[in-house]
């Protein structure tokens, strides 16, 4: 009959099993993190273009005879086009923060755009704008020279 190890010393055969279990847990955790984080950086899923200042007199679609109480025909806006492409493997919702900068590259303000339930490989294009309700600090809409994507949040959907 083999002799028992003295008390206080670990058995040698348990160490490889503990190390193997730790490797399995770490591998599973990294696989879960890869799956949860998804398809890399979603900043590349959004394109901006066509930014321009639109004076109130240039807006052909302006019709202030609607049911809203505010006058939407007397303000300048800075309009831009955006296109969101779902480069992931499952449907997703997107929320995008767009920052505005003046001609010196100084930050002026931000706007939010988004899209819901875009299928894998599909895209959605629309226009966004900065208007008098945008937080602009001491700046005016006419100070905007460029817009850039600041942050994109991609939320994969379960269905």
Describe this structure in words.
It is built from 1 helix and 6 strands. The longest helix has 24 residues, at 14-37. It has one helix at residues 14-37; strands at residues 46-54, 77-85, 92-101, 107-118, 123-130, 146-156. It folds into 2 domains: 11-39; 41-58 and 74-156, Immunoglobulin-like (Sandwich). It has 159 residues and is of the alpha+beta class. The strands form 2 sheets. Strands 1-2-5 form a 3-stranded antiparallel sheet, with no helix packed on it. A 3-stranded antiparallel sheet has the order 4-3-6, with no helix packed on it.
Order of helices and strands: HEEEEEE
Kindly identify the CATH topology of the largest domain: Immunoglobulin-like
What is the highest CATH level, the class of the largest domain?
Mainly Beta
Q: Tally the beta strands.
A: 6
Total separate domains: 2
Mean pLDDT: 78
Q: Count helical runs.
A: 1
Spatial extent as radius of gyration: 27 Å
Termini Cα gap: 61 Å
Query: How many strands, what sense, and barrel or not for the largest sheet?
Result: 3 strands, antiparallel
Query: So what's the overall shape?
Result: elongated
Taken as a percent bin, the fraction of beta residues is 35-45%
InterPro entries: FxLYD_dom
Organism: Streptomyces coeruleoprunus
Protein name: FxLYD domain-containing protein
Task: Write a brief structural summary.
This is FxLYD domain-containing protein. InterPro entries: FxLYD_dom. This protein has one helix spanning about 15-35; strands at about 45-55, 75-85, 90-100, 105-120, 125-130, 145-155.
């Amino acid at each position: 009959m083999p002799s028992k190890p003295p008390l206080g010393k670990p058995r040698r055969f348990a160490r490889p099993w503990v190390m193997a279990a730790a490797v399995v847990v770490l591998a599973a955790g990294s696989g879960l993190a890869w799956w949860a984080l998804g398809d890399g950086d979603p900043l590349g899923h959004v394109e901006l273009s066509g930014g321009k200042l639109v004076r109130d007199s240039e807006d052909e679609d302006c019709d202030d005879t609607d049911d809203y109480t505010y006058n939407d025909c007397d303000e300048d806006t800075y309009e831009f086009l955006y296109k969101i492409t779902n480069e992931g493997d499952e449907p997703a919702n997107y929320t995008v923060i767009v920052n505005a900068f003046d001609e010196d590259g100084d930050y002026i303000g931000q706007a939010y755009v988004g899209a819901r339930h875009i299928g894998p490989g599909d895209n959605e294009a629309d226009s966004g704008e900065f208007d008098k309700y945008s937080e602009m600090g001491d700046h005016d809409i006419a100070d905007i020279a460029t817009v850039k994507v600041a942050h994109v949040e991609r939320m994969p959907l379960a269905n």
